[in-house]
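Standup notes
- DV: blocked on the single-chain target, sequence here:
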Amino acid sequence: MQRKSSISLGAIYYWWLVAVLFAPIFLLIIFSFNNSTQLVFPFKGFTLQWYAKLLESREMLEAVRTSVFLGIGSSLLSTSLGALGAIAITRFKFAGKGAFTAVAAMPLVIPYIILGVSLLIMFNEVGIHLSAWAAGLAHVVISLPYALLIITSRLVGFPANLEEAAMDLGASYWGALMRVTIPICSPALVAAFLICFTISFDEFAIASFLVGTQPTLPVYLYSQLRFPTRLPLVVSLAAILMVVSMIVVLLSEWLRRIGQEPSQRS
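- DV (later): unblocked, structure below
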């Protein structure tokens, strides 16, 4: 009886938490179809005009293109550096490994506002001009810990003697990495890339300091909130971003679990 009571309380808490987290998202999607510039009930009618007008905004499309290219570039670099760092942590013993891991994970606990101001000062000192590329470098910094942790968890899951067996058969160390380690870790690499892309594509605080005259999509959206007549367009675009972000996160989690299943079976 006591066990049933604890299970029911746990279920109630779970669904309450789900409602609190996802109710704003569902309301955002619902209001994107409202035939009114005011986000209030009752609805004035159902319409798709706001989604159609999104394609007519040249500035918005340019911001989308900037965010996509920025996300792809920073995610590729973050995933590559994260893979190299994960291999170093799991396969080698070297002085300062703990300090290296701690420094690599620091962006997880530093507020993005503070990090953005710090990078702005540093870029000004070293002569890096404010641009989308400067924001991309910052996104590599904040995405790297996620890639490092995801790939490390996969490398810990399978034995290093597979690489040793490949080298015993004549492969070089780098050949063993390319033919054994990388294929086995490919789901984790894809998951890390998707997570890093989502972080870069959705990030606002740091980008607002560094992008200069090339706004990313979150920066562009924030600038449009000053105009009440453009609020429905912002809501429609935000609804699209939320749905796409959830799909990417769910896909990355699915890939991460696929990558862990072989190690669990072994």
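- Follow-up: The radius of gyration is 22 Å.
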